[in-house]
Design brief:
This protein is mainly alpha-helical and 251 residues long. It is built from nine helices and four strands.
């Protein structure tokens, strides 16, 4: 078991490099030089009908990026989407259960957001309550535990958040840049956040480089060590409830 644990850790340690997605320099957006969200490099081994989002634009994704890191989207202005979806952890969380805006715990840790644009999952979200990625942001914002604009239990509704965002001076510029007018709506916020999430792509990690060198992810990667390849095989092995020990079998 010790060797298997070390192998798995070696694999996980190799999957650490995520594409930079920010156009921010010294805390300020350069609106004349936006990050290229709409035409990013996609690994050649990725095959998906959703690989290219035809509606994704640099302007809308940029607005989504600002919203994603803005704590004002939570009821008490203390938690941003990025507070649970941390970039350094593949836009996920290391906690067993991620806390909401007032520190009340959700039932699980936050879903990792990297490469969601390529998945074919029938449901998304940690509890599978969203039928599609495009419906996820508003569900988070209007959840009574997560961001707090539920309209229930004495909480304000999503329209209150819309008014809050509309009252922030820089969002007038960003919404006009993204949509051609300054009007803030829940639907526009949802689309912007969705486009930003769809733009989060891993393409140059050690795993990506290795996968591009072979025809199948089940093959050993030439750039992996023997221990890392052993960990990859362990990671990809079917789950079994039986753990065999030389002296006993645990079920």
């Amino acid at each position: 078991m010790k060797n298997k644990t070390l192998s798995l850790l070696a694999l996980l340690a190799s999957i650490v490099c995520i594409q930079a997605v920010s156009s921010v320099l010294d805390g300020k957006l350069d609106l004349g030089n936006l990050h290229n969200y709409s035409d990013q490099l996609i690994p050649g081994y990725v095959f998906s009908e959703e690989t290219h989002d035809r509606d994704l634009t640099d302007e809308i994704a940029t607005l989504g990026r600002v919203l994603f890191y803005d704590k004002q989207l939570s009821l008490n202005s203390e938690l941003a989407c990025a507070g649970c979806h941390k970039q350094e952890f593949a836009f996920g969380d290391t906690l067993v259960a991620s806390p909401g805006f007032d520190e009340e715990l959700t039932e699980r840790h936050s879903t990792r957001l990297v490469n969601l644009n390529f998945s074919h999952l029938p449901e998304v979200f940690w509890d599978r309550r969203a039928g599609h990625l495009d419906s996820l942001p508003l569900m988070v914002l209007s959840n009574s535990i997560e961001m707090g604009f539920s309209g229930e239990h004495g909480q304000p509704d999503i329209d209150s958040l819309v008014r809050r965002v509309a009252g922030v001076y820089y969002y007038e510029l960003l919404f006009e840049l993204a949509y051609g007018d300054k009007k803030v709506t829940a639907e526009k916020m949802n689309l912007a956040l969705t486009q930003f999430v769809r733009s989060i792509v891993s393409y140059d990690s050690k795993y990506d480089v290795g996968r591009s060198m072979v025809d199948s992810n089940t093959l050993d990667f030439p750039n992996f060590t023997a221990l890392e390849n052993q960990g990859k095989r362990l990671f990809q092995s079917p789950f079994s409830r039986e753990l065999t020990h030389p002296m006993r079998t645990i079920i």
